[in-house]
Design brief:
With 553 residues, this protein is an alpha+beta fold. It is built from 17 helices and 18 strands. Helix 3 packs parallel to helix 7, helix 4 crosses helix 5 and helix 11 runs antiparallel to helix 12. It is globular and about 70 Å long.
């Protein structure tokens, strides 16, 4: 396989955070967070924890969020990267859930049109497949109605000829046509960072590489705070908080164990994705298709940045959540599923896979049921010592989960202080730097960036990529790149230099892995750049971390 070496051994090696202004600032921050009690301590820096921090901060609560590794380093960077509308829930007639997820999808798009954007999805229909043309028309039509889908994005049924015009490589055997509908794509890790930056702008303090290692209690046995352990400095600090929330995803049962709860509530399900060059799987549209040899299972093939990613699998996982594996058999399963549906010469093989990722779904345990039949609904529990614990759920539902948790925190705080807090207003918030005030649509914004960067080395290509990754931050990065290029015309990497400066100063990146995997996505969608830029990025990060950092936390 083309990409078997773990990223950490490739780009991190012996990288050590330099003893400079960034670490000095971090130590000063530790003094600040121990000075007084917090209203809410959030454990977990995935999208659920980020959403809670945003909701709570927007209501005026004093919020501290800590993450033991990098933000979004677990499930929140390893999903299918779609804001689903809930089409699959129609199979169980969960109409209210379909309506809710459709509404949330629209809210996500309104909050961040550069980050959450519509994309056409094609569902081929074959004799003996999961859906017939009639059932597809009825199901997706009902979904469009319940979810309030905009008229221009609603279902369009295609005949066989139209389907093959969209997908010329699709095998014609048994083809009855296709359903063309709309899903919303995103970058899960970047969306999490957008939410965290917005929460910080509202007063929340968010800190990565800081583990909540041990709960602290009052003399009566009530949870009063946590001891925090810093992975960068080795320091330990103790903080007080009136409420503590666990939003630890696959690690949620580990957190419960620290609170005396030994019986596991979760069953982890592993889903893998593989990435292949678009030249080997040419698609003009994303595809959602059956796995002929595995009735009832379907996979996505989604174009992105000159590649196509394919997923996902769904198998129970037993092991350490920090390092979910990528079984070779599951890679072959996805390749075979594509080859059964698409006529490729030669067929896709392991040598075509340039990268992959493995994510864990924290499912609420349902004994005796396969992972594919376990509900993705979330559960909120209050443990005997007062810990608020939430797990389960899906990427699309982050805002609803956050609202439930923050409502519970406000009720607890009201009982103790008598103070009343407002209701959730995150549906009114626009995420920082992800709106389109000056452009008619996302494509126009990206095209404008290409022209803007014309005078920079490799400017147009890199500018579009920056826009796709960073959204409305991209113009700032390009402005800084022009400053650097004006200072030194021999600098062949002004955009990369400006980009690394940005993620260090404004997005809490401490290691090359943070940049390559969760800030830029190059680990997945441009592995050659990782090899080419590894040493440069190491040096740039070292220099940036040695200087004063503009971020507040």
């Amino acid at each position: 396989m083309a990409w078997q070496v773990p990223l950490r051994t490739v780009v991190e090696k012996d990288f050590k955070v330099p003893e400079g202004e960034a670490l000095h600032q971090r130590r000063r921050l530790f003094q600040k967070i121990t000075a007084s009690a917090w209203d809410v301590l959030v454990i977990g820096g995935g999208i659920t924890g980020a959403g809670i921090a945003l909701d709570a901060a927007s209501r005026g609560l004093r919020v501290l969020l800590v993450e033991k590794a990098d933000f979004a380093s677990g499930t929140s960077s390893r999903s299918t990267k779609l804001i689903h509308g809930g089409l699959r829930y129609l199979k169980n007639l969960e109409l209210g859930l379909v309506r809710s997820t459709g509404r949330e999808r629209a809210i996500n798009h309104r909050m961040a049109p550069l980050r959450v954007y519509p994309a056409k999805m094609l569902l081929p229909l074959r004799k003996g497949g999961s859906l017939s043309p009639l059932t597809a028309r009825l199901a997706i039509g009902l979904y469009d109605f319940l979810a309030g889908v905009d008229r221009r994005d609603r279902l369009r049924m295609l005949n066989v000829q139209e389907t093959l015009e969209w997908l010329p490589r699709l095998r014609p055997e048994g083809l009855q046509g296709a359903a063309l509908y709309t899903e919303y794509q995103t970058d899960d890790a970047r969306l999490t960072l957008d939410i965290l930056r917005t929460a910080q702008g509202l007063g929340a303090v968010v800190i990565n590489y800081l583990e909540a290692s041990m709960p602290l209690y009052t003399s009566s046995g009530r949870l009063a705070g946590y001891r925090l352990s810093c992975a960068l400095t080795g320091a330990q600090v103790e903080i007080q908080s009136h409420t503590v929330v666990s939003a630890a995803g696959p690690w949620s049962d580990i957190v419960r164990q620290r609170h005396g709860q030994k019986t596991p509530l979760l069953r982890l399900s592993r889903g893998i994705h593989i990435v292949v060059p678009a030249s080997r799987l040419p698609l003009s549209v994303a595809v959602y298709m059956d796995v002929p040899t595995d009735p009832g299972r379907m996979i996505f093939c989604i174009p992105r940045r000159g590649h196509v990613y394919v997923g996902t699998t769904d198998h129970y996982f037993e092991g350490v959540p920090d390092a979910p594996d990528v079984p070779h058999a599951e890679i072959l399963y996805l390749l075979d599923a594509v080859n059964q549906q698409m006529s490729l010469n030669p067929p896709l093989g392991p040598e075509d896979v340039i990268s992959y990722w493995s994510g864990l779904r924290p499912l609420i345990r349902r004994p005796g049921r396969p992972s594919t039949e376990v509900s993705r609904k979330d559960e909120l529990k209050v443990l005997p010592d007062g810990l608020l614990w939430i797990a389960g759920g899906k990427l699309t539902g982050w805002r609803v989960m956050a609202r439930r948790v923050t409502d519970a925190c406000c009720q607890i705080l009201h009982r103790h202080t008598g103070k009343k807090y407002g209701s959730c207003r995150t549906d009114e918030i626009v995420l920082q730097d992800q709106s389109l005030p000056d452009y008619p649509d996302r494509d126009n914004f990206l095209a404008t960036l290409e022209g803007w960067a014309a005078q920079l080395p490799d400017g147009p290509r890199r500018a579009r990529e920056l826009g796709e990754i960073y959204g409305g931050v991209a113009p700032r990065i390009l402005n800084r790149a022009y400053e650097l290029f004006s200072e030194d015309r021999m600098n062949l990497n002004p955009i990369l230099t400006a980009e690394v400066e940005w993620v260090v100063q404004n997005e809490w990146a401490w290691f090359p892995e943070d940049y390559f995997e969760r800030r830029s996505g190059k680990r997945f969608f441009n592995p050659p750049a990782v090899a080419e830029e590894a040493e440069t990025v190491r040096k740039l990060m070292h220099d940036a971390l040695s200087r004063p950092v503009s971020r507040e936390n």
